[in-house]
Amino acid sequence: MRFKTGLVGAVVPALMAILVTLLLAPTPAPVGYRSAGDAVLVNRVRALVAGPEARASGSDQGFRSLAVGVVDGATSSYAFIGDRGDGSPPDASSTFELASVTKTFTALMLADSVTRGEVRLSDRVGRYLPELQGTRAGSVTLEELATHRSGLPAYSDLVAGATYEGFGSADLQSEDEAVILQQTRGLRLSGRGQWQYSNLGVSLLGFALARATGEPSWESLVRHRVLEPYGMTSTTFARTDAQIPASAAQGHHINGSPVEPVTGGGYLPAGTTTFTTVTDMTRYASALLSGRAIGLWSLTPRYEINEDESIGLVWMTRTVAGHDVHFHPGGVPGYSSFFVVDPTAGRAVVVLGGSEESVEAIGFHLLDASSTVPWFVRPSTQSALGVTGLVLVAGAMLAGLRGRQPVVLAAAGALAQTGLILLLRDGPWHRIPGWTWGLAAFAVFWITVDVGRSWGAPTRRPHSRRLAWVGLGLAVAAYAAVIVTTPR
Predict the structure, then answer these.
(1) Are residues 324 and 466 in the same domain?
(2) Angle made by CA atoms 329, 359, 32, in degrees to the nearest 5
(3) Range of the domain at 209
(4) Mean pLDDT of all residues in the chain?
(5) In a shared domain, residues 126 and 160
(6) Three-class SS of 339-359
(7) Both 102 and 178 in a single domain?
(8) Could you say which of 318, 339, 367 is where a domain stops?
(9) pTM of the model
(10) CATH number for 249
């Protein structure tokens, strides 16, 4: 088999690049014109999202849908902006993932259980989870778990956790409570006594509270002590895909691609997967502000996190307008959330977002217009990965132009595939148009065809055609890996 240079060598890669670009190219977009709710609050949110600080950070291109609730004394107002996934804006019945704000439920229940005499903060978690007795993790106290000072890592399986947070894959589905406890038995503690955010730690805390109170599960405990007393009838937890509510707004990665929720029971106390409405969360806020909520002393700061923030039992605290406010941000693949209460002013704000773009700045600025909390800036590590992807693709293109040896071209193709994955996932798509990814895809396909042409070049060896087909097969398989591993 021989590949001819010239028109075919350029047109075939171009057509293939156009096709995959239409299917996969990052398409971040602003929230658009759709909106509902209180007109004044809608305009305030829009002014924040389209403001100079948000635009400078690129956040204005990262939001897809927003549900916002503001509690001011006995009054609650709402704003719904964007597209929930069916062409209409979200409404009071639309559910979003609450993510790590869920941890505040566990905090209230811990404080309540201490008040009831069911547990003590100094109790070791192994007392309630006998599977951990005799292990390093079993020696950690309930207070250490609730203040992220246990020395436990973020997840019991670091690879599964990193894949979940990086790609939004379903690696956590098979990890139920029993699996996580078994994995935790062999973990070492690192940095015990220092702040180190741990989803695993709060999950163990939730399991321990359920055992201590005699409830069959953490979800059952939450329903009886938090959701039912405060009328939060739309808040649910999904162990399986079948339990995802039909009212769930579509989640998105920052690059614009949709993402489906990752369900599973192992990390429910930490915030996977909780679905709620903004109205349920304003009911929750009203219970906290009115003093009706259980375990309110969990909000009281106990340890410093940094010069601006401290932590109580799960709840974080910072000073706004001269007095303490208590809050917790949240984020899971496809969604973001933020919840803040100001007991002194009698105000609270909840923001639920249908993308991974942080909504923390929106919440703080709605609570206090003079807030100094900056807009979210993407981590330098993420930007570095995106730049690395671009360098790999550019380097592969250069290698393809300069080197004609099949082995060199094959290596360049492999590098290009890796670069394309990194570029799609971590590129600065809030600042550059998505079609530029198509140019990178063209480079990869060009190398793919070039590998096949070079391996199929005239030769006296009788198996040259086989080598050509093998070369093309390997290159196409590598590119298919890009499609399979791309967040969608």
Answers:
(1) no
(2) 155
(3) 96-367
(4) 84
(5) yes
(6) EEEECCCCEEEEEEECCCCCC
(7) yes
(8) 367
(9) 0.83
(10) 3.40.710.10
- Is residue 429 in a domain? yes
pLDDT digits (tens, 9 = 90+) for 313-368: 999 999 998 899 999 999 999 999 999 999 999 999 999 999 988 999 999 999 99
Answer whether 417's CB lies under 8 Å from 478's CB.
yes
Query: What domain count does the chain have?
Result: 2
3-class SS string, 395-415:
HHHHHHHHCCCHHHHHHHHHH
3-class secondary structure, 139: helix
Q: Is 382 a residue whose pLDDT tops 60?
A: no
**Cis preceding-peptide flag for 273 (omega within 30 of 0):** yes
- Asked whether residue 360 falls in the same domain as residue 394, the answer is no
Are 215 and 233 in contact, with CB atoms under 8 Å apart?
no
Burial 138-169 (b: 16+ CB within 10 A, else e): bbbbbbbbbbbbbbbbbbbbeebbebbbebbb
Distance set, CA 132 to CA 139, 141, 153 (Å): 8, 12, 16
Tell me the percentage of the chain whose pLDDT exceeds 70: 76
* Residue 356 counted as domain residue: yes
CA 207, 209, 214, 220 dihedral sign is: negative
Rounded to an integer, what distance in angstroms lies between the CA atom of residue 28 and that of residue 63? Answer: 8
CB-count burial class (<10 Å; 0-12, 13-18, 19+) for 66: buried
Write out the two tokens for 374.
Answer: 């900056």
Indicate whether 488 pLDDT > 50: no
pLDDT single digits (tens) 29-75: 778 889 999 999 999 999 998 887 877 777 777 889 999 999 999 99
| Same domain for 331 and 278 | yes
Indicate whether 204 belongs to any domain.
Answer: yes
Whether 296 has a pLDDT exceeding 90, the answer reads yes
Residue at which a domain ends, from 344, 367, 390: 367
**Taking the CB of residue 170, how many other CB atoms lie within 10 A of it?**
17
The pLDDT of residue 107 is 98
User: DSSP assignment of 281-325, as one string?
Assistant: HHHHHHHHHHT-STTGGGGS--EESSSS-EESSS-EEEEETTEEE
Alpha carbon 208 to its chain centroid, in Å, reads 26
